[in-house]
From TrEMBL:
Principal location: cytoplasm
Pyridine nucleotide-disulphide oxidoreductase dimerisation domain ranges (all copies): 352-461
UniProt xrefs under Pfam families: Pyr_redox_2, Pyr_redox_dim
Similarity annotation: Belongs to the class-I pyridine nucleotide-disulfide oxidoreductase family.
Comment field (misc): The active site is a redox-active disulfide bond.
Cofactor(s) needed by this chain: FAD
Protein name: Dihydrolipoyl dehydrogenase
Top-level EC class as recorded in UniProt: oxidoreductase
Single GO MF annotation: dihydrolipoyl dehydrogenase (NADH) activity
Every FAD/NAD(P)-binding domain range: 5-333
Keywords recorded for this protein, A-Z: Cytoplasm, Disulfide bond, FAD, Flavoprotein, NAD, Oxidoreductase, Redox-active center
Amino acid sequence: MADKFDVIVIGAGPGGYVAAIRAAQLGLKTACVEKWTNKEGKVVHGGTCLNVGCIPSKALLETSHKFVEARDHYDEIGIEVGDLSPNIAKMLEFKEKVIAKNVGGISALFKANGVTALDGTGKVLSSKQVEVNNGGDKTVYEADNIVIATGSVPVEIPPTPLTDDLVVDSSGALEFTEAPKRLGVIGAGVIGLELGSVWNRLGSEVTMLEAMDTFLPAVDTAIAKETQKLLKKQGLDIKLGARVTGSEVKGKEVVVKYTDAKGEQEQTFDKLIVCVGRRPYTQGVLGEDAGVKLDERGFIFVDDQCRTSVPGVYAIGDCVRGQMLAHKASEEGVMVADIIAGHKAEMNYDAIPCVIYTAPEVAWVGMNEQEAKAAGIEVKTGSFPFSANGRALANNAPDGMAKVIADAETDRILGVHIVSQHAGELIAQGVIAMEFGSSAEDLALTCYAHPSTSEAVHEAALAVGGHAIHMANRKKR
């Protein structure tokens, strides 16, 4: 029998590596198992998020946005740059550098905090044992506690099987060496919109096929409508109610068949990205005698504090219920490590922010207005356009709006929804407000820096009570 640990974490993504570091900081002997290898065959940490997800996609989103901004909008503010063209090879090189810095940083943090990195695949056995398989060399470790953080993988659908460099998932879409002339994207959710935006900016004609009839149903209707209008203006052709029924590869093209309100349709693309969601990754993670139960959707069953059906075994992140978000996984990792160390810890699942990193960004936390009304809650809302915000105008970024949703009886904030430049940063004030149970009046009475785009949230909070300063036709006190 090999070494025994207080905690063994399986998976070194945003949930796993954070859980391991936190546990080590609390004085627990901790190991973290990871099987992900880079292009050189070396085991690296960070999981999907750092290697083929959040981080590399944001690198391409930022570089492609800067290109479009310089090409189409610099002259509006008095900067003449002449003809511009994107160098996709250099953009991909930049993306790889960003990935390397991030994964290297995690390895350094493991060493600094005394986390033992175990290379290979991890499997939970009975009696809280973990088998680590490193290229066929198997070692069994004992642990007082186990944290499963194995994440998720893209969902594949029968009508569009992945085909080399032609029909790809979200990971493959980050490796295109040139912008395809005609790009199809199945799914107009967070990942689809981000990847579609990248290649649209770099020259692709992008068509998005979304099976649902509603655009971004998790987002407040007013914000979603504004977002759809802005993305359409940028050139994204978003077809709602388009259900893909089949595809056929013809040479270097793929013909996609789908049905919509008009009946059977067909469209030909040079590349096709399948972004229809993700599923929990638990393949080979649980031994037959592990005792850990899965729910009806294949997620590891856990309670509100991420305990599985086996005492001392926890599961966090994408492989358990809830939103598949890196920051949600990280916070669950901290909570579990604290519980293992004997501290009282819990997580507020009602105050987890979501962000779509398009331009402008879309961000929200809490309920949208339609959800609140469906739950029988009487609400009052306040909205404010960024076209009336001084800093947004100075930034030449007047698109978007902020909306605050509050309980009509108590004034407690139920949700905040924003579409704007840097909405992913602005939403933090909504998260903090909800975490502390703030009312809309609390935000309205807060002094905001001027000029700042965050003032739009301030005005939206004021508008809940009918007292926005920089909007006409509001109620008088």
